[in-house]
Amino acid sequence: MPMETVPEWMANLEEEEIVFIKKFLLASGSLKEVAKQYSVTYPTVRLRLDRLIQKIQINEDHANEPYISLIKRMVVNEKLDLDAAKILISEYKKIREKP
Question: Which domains does the chain carry?
């Protein structure tokens, strides 16, 4: 696939996330094997995978809402707490709904 046709969800990944996906695939999806490769526990790898899944889902769910997507990415990356994110999204939606 030419670089021009890389899906947006993939283009938004960090290099370390792409490396993680590659290791996961080469390990045939074995989180246990990936944990060995990174010298971490299984729950640590599971958490990393869950966050990566959330990041991809956020990108897919909010392709037309980049502001909301940004806020949710910040929560996933632990740069913003969930309560603050809910307030920001709620206020944003109120502003957008006004005529």
Answer: 1-61 (1.10.10), 65-99 (no CATH)
